[in-house]
Amino acid sequence: VAVHEIGHVLGLSHMNHLGSVMQPNYIPANGKMELGWTDRRAIQKIYGKCSGRFSTVFDWVHQEPDDLGHQVSHYNTYFFRRSWYWRYENSSNRTWYGYPQELKVGWEGIPHADIDAFLHFWTRNKRFTFFFKGKLYWRYDDQNDRAYRQDPEGHIYPRLISEGFPGIGGPIDTVFYDQRDHNIYFFHGRN
């Protein structure tokens, strides 16, 4: 009922569409309630769609403990814009509840705004996650959900991109790890 009334506050009228929260008759929701595409499109018609560039977009398979302490893999797409990020749940075709969030809340130790690029690559024995901004980069500790100040190899972060990736300056626009040839590709502008 509250979501329906909030819909009216936002300017939505009643809709005779099955599953819409704006139906004239109240239909109890079982468990979690979520806006359907009809309701979302109606709101976008009034207020417009999200527009503007994202500074970084990346897919990440991230392991997190469940309620029983077992490691569960989540495949999500992340969208970074200025100091905010969205976690998109690919299996449900929607953002996670409670997003967007501020970078400083979800990504401890990386810059709080305008991340240029993200890199995740792995070998048989190791996984590496990096964030890039300007001429610097940070290695991210997946297990503890924060950037390293000093990694297990003894490197202090942030580091100059040219120190960790000789021949590459900065800033970069994006970076890509190709599993087929095990190479990392850096891009800036059209190069």
UniProtKB/TrEMBL annotation:
GO terms for cellular component: extracellular matrix. It holds the Pfam family Peptidase_M10. Residues 1-48 form the Peptidase M10 metallopeptidase domain. The modification Phosphotyrosine is found at Y99. Gene3D superfamilies: Collagenase (Catalytic Domain), Hemopexin-like domain. Can bind about 5 Ca(2+) ions per subunit. InterPro entries: Hemopexin-like_dom_sf, Hemopexin-like_repeat, MetalloPept_cat_dom_sf, Pept_M10_metallopeptidase, Pept_M10A. GO terms for biological process: proteolysis. One of its GO terms (molecular function) is metalloendopeptidase activity. Ca(2+) 5 binds at V175. Hemopexin repeats lie at residues 55-110, 112-168, 169-191. Ca(2+) 4 binds at D173. Keywords: Calcium, Hydrolase, Metal-binding, Metalloprotease, Protease, Zinc. Its cofactor is Ca(2+). This is Peptidase M10 metallopeptidase domain-containing protein. It comes from Xenopus tropicalis (Western clawed frog).
